TrEMBL record:
WAP domain: residues covered: 87-136
InterPro entries for this protein: Anosmin-1, Elafin-like_sf, FN3_dom, FN3_sf, Ig-like_fold, WAP_dom
GO biological process: neuron differentiation
Protein name: WAP domain-containing protein
PANTHER family: ANOSMIN, ANOSMIN-1
Length: 529
């Protein structure tokens, strides 16, 4: 027998979040009405009412506990909302008056009720404050299911595994009648959680937090999907009924899934937004879509090449650039008109100390027909999503000849410093003056290290196009590896560096900052490409 929910106007009963009174009425139904077969795992799995929406806001063990109770009520969502919003007292007893040393005790009020503590922890007083603590005496609560033990993992095809664990039925010689014992024993749910780490070697210090994987009413689970290739996994299980739980089992032995394959080649390679710059050089945007990959893609390798015809033989001029993993496009600059180019994009993943590279996606481009790829009605600008954070705040004219530009960018929490690199790409002046500029200042790049999130770049020429790149230099760290008793730098621990890029034009100044006018600041427009 299960229960249905009747919503009435002013009758007595529990109230939901909308203020409606909810009465529970018994309805006979078959047991299969509250259980269903999970097609992803192949195991009988308890039908949690959209449990993912509850897990984000509530403790996973509390969600399963409420679901065990609400499996006897229909509709279950009404019951779940009421159960999760209620304050409740967890089984077990708080430790004694002085369970902690003064160094361990937190002199704060961290909770007001047991419902604010995770898993089986209770809100208890210590000799300095109130904190969540693991209770005592759970083994004496006979109406709680026993902790599962002896988790066994059987490898099947590829990344498929089967989990089994031992369960101990509660004794019938308990303080409640046999009918109540049967109700609690049959409504036991098993909360299965997992944690994982990517890499060829098991590193416990880098395991992810525990997260719920599945809930089942059986002492086994067949996992057919959801496990990632090239990862180490651990599982733990908690038996939960509507009274509560005694806690989680010991973690299973770690096991590794199949070796990862190389990424697939980037998809949907396309060209657009071709336009001719004022220096008669062509620019074009190349786009692609991220390909499927067993392990995360770290960056892309972009190649473009063209044939150089010589008097004796021909040669191939090849350029290449690394593109951050969060970009799916790149603006190729300084292309010549009347040439045929060959573009290629390759995805690169890192697994341990080994690179996994994809096949190269390719496209041929004839720069004579660049207008086919021009989009005069739409200019998306730079395709680097970080560019919005890197900008020129202001320009300052220096004595009529040079310009100072102040760059600002958002802070990177992982960065200890920033490497700022800038380079002059071209200038928009008459040929005579252009020759004098080229003789005075070269087009080589310059760089500077800074710990600030701004930098003043000085001695820039007017009416010239500059490109700037700001690369984050991450904080030093070590990754412990219990391998041959050595402490080594591990590629599994690599943290991708953030790269910001921008391009701007220093237009001519109408006013200047002289030596005795240090605060005369002139603002100019910044064109980003």
């Amino acid at each position: 027998m299960v229960w249905a929910v009747e919503v009435v106007g002013e009758a007595s009963g529990s109230k939901d979040q909308t203020g409606r009174t909810v009465n529970l009425i018994p309805v006979r139904t078959h047991r299969l009405d509250i259980h269903q077969l999970d097609h992803t795992s192949g195991s009988p799995v308890h039908c949690l009412a959209n449990w993912t929406e509850y897990i984000e806001e509530h403790d996973s063990m509390r969600v399963v506990q409420c679901n065990s109770k609400c499996s006897r009520y229909l509709p279950s969502k009404e019951c779940m909302d009421i159960c999760l919003a209620a304050n409740y007292t967890k089984p077990g007893n708080c430790p004694g008056e002085n369970p902690m040393s003064p160094f361990e005790a937190a002199c704060v009020t961290a909770c007001n009720s047991d419902s604010q503590c995770s898993d089986v922890a209770k809100c208890c007083s210590n000799n300095c404050g109130i904190t969540c603590m693991r209770p005592l005496g759970l083994e004496k609560w006979e109406d709680l299911p026993h902790v599962p033990d002896k988790i066994e993992i059987r490898r099947e095809k590829s990344n498929m595994v089967a989990l089994n664990w031992n369960i101990r039925k509660n004794s019938k010689h308990q303080k409640f009648v046999k009918e109540d014992w049967t109700k609690y024993d049959q409504n036991v749910m098993y909360l299965v959680e997992e944690r994982h780490v990517l890499g060829p070697r098991y590193l416990e210090s880098r395991l992810s937090p525990w997260r719920i994987h599945q809930v089942t009413n059986q002492n086994y689970l067949s996992i057919r999907v959801g496990l990632k290739t090239g990862h180490w996994y651990q599982f733990r299980v908690a038996a939960v009924n509507e009274i509560g739980s005694r806690g989680y089992s010991l973690p299973s032995s770690p096991f590794k899934t199949a070796e990862p394959r190389n990424p697939r080649e980037p998809r949907n390679l396309s060209l657009n937004e071709a336009h001719l710059h004022t220096d008669d050089k062509l620019r074009i945007l190349i786009h692609w879509r991220q390909p499927p990959s067993d392990v995360p893609i770290m960056f892309y390798k972009l190649f473009w090449s063209r044939i150089i015809h010589g008097p004796m033989n021909d040669s191939i001029l090849v350029y290449h650039r690394s593109v951050p993993k969060d970009k799916s496009c790149y603006e190729i600059k300084n292309l010549d008109i009347g040439c045929q180019y060959f573009f290629q994009v390759q995805a690169v993943a890192i697994y341990g100390g080994r690179r996994l590279v994809s096949r190269k996606a390719s496209k041929v481009f004839n720069s004579t027909d660049y207008m086919k790829y021009a989009d005069v009605n739409k200019r998306s600008g730079s395709c680097d999503k970080h560019d919005a954070g890197l900008r020129v705040r202001r320009f300052i004219c220096e004595c009529g000849e040079t310009i100072e530009a102040r760059l600002v960018w958002p802070v990177d929490p992982q960065a200890a410093s920033y490497n700022v690199t800038w380079q002059k790409n071209s200038c928009h002046r008459n040929p005579k003056e252009m020759k004098n500029i080229q003789n005075s200042i070269s087009f080589s790049s310059m760089s500077q290290l800074t710990q600030s999130t701004r930098l003043d770049i000085k001695r820039l020429r007017r009416d010239c196009t500059y490109s700037v790149n700001v690369r984050s230099i991450n904080r030093e760290f070590e990754c412990e590896r219990n391998y041959e008793n050595e402490l080594r730098q591990n590629n599994d621990c690599l943290i991708s560096e953030r790269n910001l890029g921008i391009e701007f034009v220093t237009y001519g100044c109408k006013h200047y900052r002289l030596r005795d006018e240090e605060h005369a600041i002139i603002n100019f427009d910044v064109h980003r490409y």
